[in-house]
Amino acid sequence: MTHGDGIRVAVLDDYQGVAEGLADWGSLGPGVAVDFLSEPVPRAEAAARLAPYAVLCLMRERMPLDAELIAALPALQLVVFTGGRNPSVDSAALQARGITVCNTRNGEGGIATAELTVALMLACARNLPREFANMAGGRWQDSVGESLEGRTLGLVGLGRIGARVAAVGRALGLRVTAWSPNLTPERAEAGGATLVPREALFSESDVVSLHMVLAPSTRGIVGAAEIARMRRGAILINTSRGPLIDEAALLAALAEGRIRAGLDVFDREPLPADHPLRAVPNAVLTPHLGYVTQSTYRMFYEDTVEAIAAWRRGAPVRVVTP
């Protein structure tokens, strides 16, 4: 089916205000009006704010699109989300409405996330945010960091990203161990790590880094018991998904000064301005930057424009089915 003119497109959660300049949206033609929304749309306002749009362009999982919201959007005909998968989108509800769903290529998110993981490890080990603040405030050094060589890095999950982190860890002189529910000794060795029991990973590691997909079976996989096993002063890194960690247990351990943390992901995003995690001195926080790079964003938005154009021609590309 070929779609006529007068189509309204919303590009959601363009936090940095860069989407318009990273792809040729004008190539969609004068009959397509594109709005770039940099501020998150509150859930309570979503139905009213998004009702006029035939096309919604989602950045990863920033804007959940559930069945209730889908039912409240009568004009919606096409959803394009960036990346290969999006569990925050109810694809079955969209399919039931006859709404086309397309995705984009993944970009360099795996590479970039692995790099950020290592950056957070180093920032925690060397107290970098604190010393950045000292220099900006006219002060000099007042902390003593530590090197990572000879320490143990425990990876919870050893997929594509975990294996890249393992390689960098070995280059830094870390002993690398790993655990996941289905990991075998052979696959661990192929990924550059030694398989250890789950309990041993938490009790023996100086740095624990999470690289698991969020699913019902992995939600809260790091709870109070796992955190209690960690060595005093150990570092917990999460660049995967916030709900992998029991937030209350993490906050308690950080408040007591038992561990340190480097976190790029959170239970609620954007993280509220008054969230207690923002106030603990032994946590290094970044605002879900793992996949956020120029080349990835360019691919995301170019693929999004391509998907809209193909859909308008009646030959959609990269169609997602439930």
UniProtKB/TrEMBL annotation:
One Pfam short name: 2-Hacid_dh
Listed CDD domains: PGDH_like_1
Entry's Gene Ontology molecular function annotations: NAD binding; oxidoreductase activity, acting on the CH-OH group of donors, NAD or NADP as acceptor
Occurrences of domain D-isomer specific 2-hydroxyacid dehydrogenase catalytic (ranges): 34-318
Domain of life, source organism: Bacteria
UniProt keyword list: NAD, Oxidoreductase
Residue ranges of domain D-isomer specific 2-hydroxyacid dehydrogenase NAD-binding in the record: 118-290
TM segment ranges: none
Sequence similarity: Belongs to the D-isomer specific 2-hydroxyacid dehydrogenase family.
Name of the protein: 2-hydroxyacid dehydrogenase
